[in-house]
Amino acid sequence: MPKITALLFDCDNTLVLSEELAFEACADLINKICAERNVEKRFTGESLIQEFVGQNFRGMLTTLQKEYGIKIAPDDMEKYVLMEEDAVIAKLKAALRPCPGVDAQLDALVASDKYLLSVVSSSALRRVRASIEKVGQDKYFPGDVVFSAATSLEKPTSKPDPAIYLHALKKLGKTAKESVAIEDSKSGTLSGTRAGIKVIGYVGPYADDKKAEMAKVLTDAGAVVIMRDWSEFPAALKKIEAGEV
Hints:
Blueprint: E1 6-9, H1 19-36, H2 45-52, H3 57-68, H4 74-95, H5 102-112, E2 116-121, H6 125-134, E3 146-148, H7 163-172, E4 179-183, H8 186-194, E5 198-202, H9 211-220, E6 225-227, H10 233-241
Parallel strand pairs: 1-2, 1-4, 2-3, 4-5, 5-6
Helix pairs in contact: 1-2, 1-4, 4-6
Pfam family, one: HAD_2
Protein name: Phosphorylated carbohydrates phosphatase
InterPro entries: CbbY-like (IPR044999), HAD-like_sf (IPR036412), HAD-SF_hydro_IA (IPR006439), HAD_2 (IPR041492), HAD_sf (IPR023214), PGP-like_dom2 (IPR023198)
């Protein structure tokens, strides 16, 4: 059983409670894009979360093009991606909070000095850095240990593509077998699992009446253990380290 030496954290709704804020900002822009292309469908932050949780903005626009038969020129795509980043970062800087209990776990992990801690996200690097800086979590992730599927790769992508996890492992000099990922979405869990990494599924930020359903979604996507609260993290990690899952 290889020793676990690296912990790879998703950012949105895993480290910080950003999804709701981000999707609100996103909905305004997507509705404008739809209106300009005569698509009648309109989104709220909530309906976007249900449809696209775990995907970055580029991924959402790609899906929209397929589903509604609309065309977004490459130049427009880049323009929209930047506009969305600006809108989301402004919202996050105003109101972002950490996920309950996560900082205590990060403190304990840093104190144990047993693991390399990294952030592996679908969101743009600028947004991820703004998020962790806003809540003071940048101290847990010093140096080049923050990776973005939208920014860090030569060809931008989004989870569930495993490319960002494979890239992070390579840059960190770690193997999948000595790493554990923590994810809150189906696409993120699939991304980690497809990269050969064992995933802890976190359902804390979901509404209470959705937690059981999401636990099943994440388990079906490959999560080997589910936690409802960050206080359950040490036990979840222990299970993986003991080879029980």
